[in-house]
Amino acid sequence: MKRDEDAQILAAARAAFIGDAPPLLSQLEEALLVLDEPSLGPARLLSALDATRVLEGTAELCHCEAIAGLAREMNRLLQLMRHGRLEATEELTKVLLAGRDQIAAELADLGGGHASLLTRSRTEQLQLVLCGLAGPSDTGEWPDHLPAFGAETLPGAPVAVPSTDGAWHVSVRFVPDALRQGIDPLVLLHHLQTVGEIWRIETLVDDIPLIQTLDAEACHLGLELRLGTDAPPQAIESALAPLRAGANVELLAPTARPADYDALLRRRCGDDEDARSRLLWIWLALGVNIRLRDETPPAASPAAAPHGHGASEGPPDPAPAPVAVSTPQIERRTESLRDRRLQRPDRRLDAPGKLVGVRAERLETLVELLAELATAAAGAQAMSRLDASAALQLTVQQVADLAHGACDAAHALRRVPVARSLDALQDVVAEAAASWGKTASLVIHGSDTDIDATIADVLADSLVHVLCNSIEHGLERPEARIAAGKPERGQLTLRVRESAGSVVVECTDDGHGLDREDLLARAGRAGLVAPGAELDHAEVCQLAFAARLPRGGIAGGRRPHGAGLAAIRRNIESLRGRVELTSLRGRGTTVCLHLPLSTSMIDGVLVLVGDSYYVIPLAAVDEVCEAPPDALPASGELRATIPFRGGDLPALDLVRFCGGQSRGDPRRRSLVVVRDGRERAGLVVDRVLGRQHALMKPLAGSLGQLKTLAGSAVLGAGDVGLVLDIAGIVAAATAMPGPRQPG
Amino acid sequence: MDLNDDIVVEMPAWALGPSLTLAQAEAHRALLVDALPLLQNDPRLDLADVAEIDSSGVQLLLSLRATLAQAGQALQLVNPSPIVRSALERLGLTALFPLTADAPPR
């Protein structure tokens, strides 16, 4: 039973991850594509770091080790770039982009429920390459979570290929008596430095015994190094000559082929897989390219022939090549890098000097006119299908497309980077903290999302209140913080991310959190809670929003806190957003604001329910499929939990819910699966008519109070459709589940 | 924040020197084996006075590092003399040793 629950939780977490990941991936891609631009790089680097960190954390939660590993290695590389220890070269960008694409591939596998061997092997290879580029950690350790180099019988096992650095590779092993014979590795290095420059060096230390058993006079060291030199081979040989008696020296010229490295690997390690793996790691750290075996000519490495591993472990992978990090693929990326850059919106237009000031009202008028135009064009298109020549139909089609394009473009004008609203918050925090005799710092993550200007204003306004509340009521005084073992300075964190057509801002403090008992007591006095009522954690947190909470505030505060939160919630909800609050006693409070990215245009799926048209916001739609006839809510029931894709899905019969009469064949209805945050629900509709781009207007009067409707939209043919409010409709489907089916 | 802020210097670190070469390697090794219980509590080694080091000396440090790592301790080299630093740098080993200077340079 427990295992079932765990599996369900994991499945839900993964589903949520698959939903949340695409915006992170595009954030990452956008950042990576401009990394080498001096003006944008540094800011975008932070955004990329943030994306990889969130991906890693979420993937770990979902036990997606492959994605977590990739994100972790990418994060490590980006950290090195941030600290100026790695330069953002084109090559590096390409590998990072390959990493991003590979995460997307893993996600696709995760969503499809089938882990392909090919994907997995590419992921491991790429992880190795990323890790090799980042090098060992500051303490000289390689991360211990890395996969070993794959068995060489697998197609695509790694192989060293000569680097393009033009360096000689020198590999030295000493006889145990070397030191006693007067041959010292340090002296050898000195000799080598007379003929060239040692670019990189790794000393092999794995064979040194523990100090209790060490023969201190024997030599247990080995050397692998890259020597940059123009000297002729003879000069290098002669520099090494005095050492020949006490050491085995192998030299590989810059022109050495993969097969030469392969042979060296074999001479050094024989068949010891572990040793081979270690030595490959060292070569990676030295900058020797480790590529995949299918790059080597078959004759050069007979061991590379595949032995059919894939066939025995699962369905054969359809495409034998190319593998993610193979040379041709990396090279293809060189060409595609420019294409990719062209495809991304150019954010340099945000740079000062290229801005034109426009009055908001004029913009508003333009947006509305274009939206009306798009609607009219869609109407003309519908009419032309009835009685018009093919040529006229085509022209009308073009007009409609252009009108849509103009409408989108005008809408983009209204969008501003959310960072603009957030910059001023630093001052707010400093001021508020000072006035309460506290110290606090604010860290903002991921602030390069674009949102509608109106929403940005509301967001900034709300955040000021949220932050002030956190400082006033959440954070303790410095002396109390020290007593509680926390850093003296309070830490406030804002995390901004895009999720399914909305922007989510999380505001976290590390203060003392909500005082459950105090809150309950005050809510009890205000008559909000019946005495003795059992409330779960979420319900208690919900109380903090109540407007009529008497004096008290969060744990020891001096002013009522509830009024502030209630006002914030009203503000956010007026824009079809929502606010959530979670709190851990002693650890802090998180206020989470969800806001739509845009106020008025809606991109949705048009469905027919009875005689009425409804629009379901596209961003929330997970899937549209034929409703399984046996899985419909039982006759007379609005809701049911139906089996779906191996799990349970709360479903709502929209026809009955909206009080209509189903027109279509009941056996040919459709199921639209929608998502609100982590909750999913299935909506049973009569017919799915297609995608609809429409101007949404709020509902007037009492209709505006309906939680399940967000507004109305004028459709192409002049009909009016109702736009579903996803949060409301999902709550309606899940809040009061009908009788569960057995199992 | 500087990690060194947390270290309150009470005991001087175990010192080694002035010559870490083959001739003294075995003697130093025996000394370090005896000092192991102390070093497992306070894994700092003062190398300020080292005027001479060869590969056997470096190897000794690496062996001590591995031994202490087994006890969950990270060997720290305190105030390593320039000679020690350059030997570690030449062998590409600086990343293996946190080099600290928690006493004022002499």
Write a structural description.
With 743 residues, chain A is α+β, with helices and mostly antiparallel strands. In chain A, 43% of the residues lie in helices and 20% in strands. Chain A has five domains: 2-147, Four Helix Bundle (Hemerythrin (Met), subunit A), CATH 1.20.120.160; 160-304, Histidine kinase CheA-like, P2 response regulator-binding domain (Alpha-Beta Plaits), CATH 3.30.70; 360-414; 417-596, Heat Shock Protein 90 (2-Layer Sandwich); 601-735, OB fold (Dihydrolipoamide Acetyltransferase, E2P), CATH 2.40.50. Chain A has 22 helices and 23 strands. In chain A, the strands form six sheets. Chain A has a five-stranded mixed sheet with strand order 8-10-11-13-12, sandwiched between helices. In chain A, helix 1 (2-33) runs antiparallel to helix 2 (41-61), helix 15 (425-435) packs parallel to helix 16 (453-474) and helix 16 (453-474) packs antiparallel against helix 20 (562-573). The longest helix of chain A is centred in the first third of the chain and has 32 residues, at 2-33. The relative contact order of chain A is 0.07. By secondary structure, chain B is an alpha/beta fold. Chain B has one domain: STAS domain (Transcription Regulator spoIIAA, 2-Layer Sandwich). Chain B has helices spanning 22-41, 55-70, 82-90; strands at residues 14-15, 19-20, 44-46, 52-53, 76-78, 99-100. In chain B, the strands form two sheets. A four-stranded parallel sheet of chain B has the order 1-3-5-6, with no helix packed on it. A two-stranded parallel ribbon of chain B has the order 2-4. In chain B, helix 1 (22-41) runs parallel beside helix 2. Chain B is globular. Chains A and B meet through helix 6 and strand 3 of A and helix 1 and helix 2 of B.
